[in-house]
Amino acid sequence: MTERTAETLEGYVVDEGPSSHRHKAHQAWRHAETIKRLSDRLIGIGPFGIGLDGVLAWVPGVGLAYGLGAGGVLLYHAMQARASAATMARMAAYLAADNLSDTVPMLGWAVDTLFPGHLMAAKALQKDIESKHGLPDDIDIKTRKKRKVKVGKR
Fold first, then answer.
1. Among 4, 31, 68, 150, which lies 20 to 30 A Cα-Cα from 38?
2. How far apart are CA 119 and CA 33, in angstroms?
3. Alpha-helix runs per DSSP H in the chain
C-alpha cells in the first residue's frame, strides 16, 4: 500500500500522493544540477572545473557564506526529495569538508578552489533520486543533458 497524505488548503483537500513525491524529487534533481554547475562547473577543462565556489573562496567571508548557502539549499532539496539518511549524511560530509577548508587562509582557499564539494553532494542527491524515481522526463539518459523539445505542427 502506498503512503498518502492529504491536507486542507483554503477549504480544498490537497492530495500529495506518489506522483507528487516524484515531481518534487525531479524538481530537486534539477535544482541540484543548477547548483552543481554554478558552484563547480562554470568553466570546465576536461574533468576539472571551477565555479562560483572556487572564485569566491579567495574573498574572505564571501566564499564561506556562498558555500554554506548553496550547501543549505542542496540539503533543503534533499529533504524535499526525501533522500535517504545515508545520502544526506554523505552530502553533509562533502559540504562540511568544502566549507571547513574555507576557514584556513590561503592554503584552505586553494583547497576549496580545487575541491568540488557541491558537485559531489549534488551528484549524491541526484543518484538517490534516480534510484527511487528515475531521471526526470526531460533529461536524456545517454548524455544526461536536457533534451530540446521541438514544438511543431501536429
1. 150
2. 9
3. 18-40, 52-56, 62-80, 85-101, 107-114, 117-133
DSSP state of 12: E
Query: Based on the number of CB atoms within 10 Å of its own CB, is 145 exposed (0-12), middle (13-18) or buried (19 or more)?
Result: exposed
Sign (positive or negative) of CA dihedral 119, 61, 101, 114: positive
Place of cell 586553494: 110
108-127 confidence digits (pLDDT tens): 888 888 899 999 999 999 99
Instruction: Provide the Cα torsion 92, 98, 115, 40; round to 10°.
Output: 80
DSSP letter for 42, please: S
Nearest to 113 by CA among 43, 37, 56: 56
Cell of 84: 535517504
Grid cell for residue 55? 572564485
CA–CA gap between residue 41 and residue 59 (Å, rounded)? 19
How many angstroms separate the CA atoms of 145 and 41, rounded?
A: 14
Cell representation of residue 121:
553532494
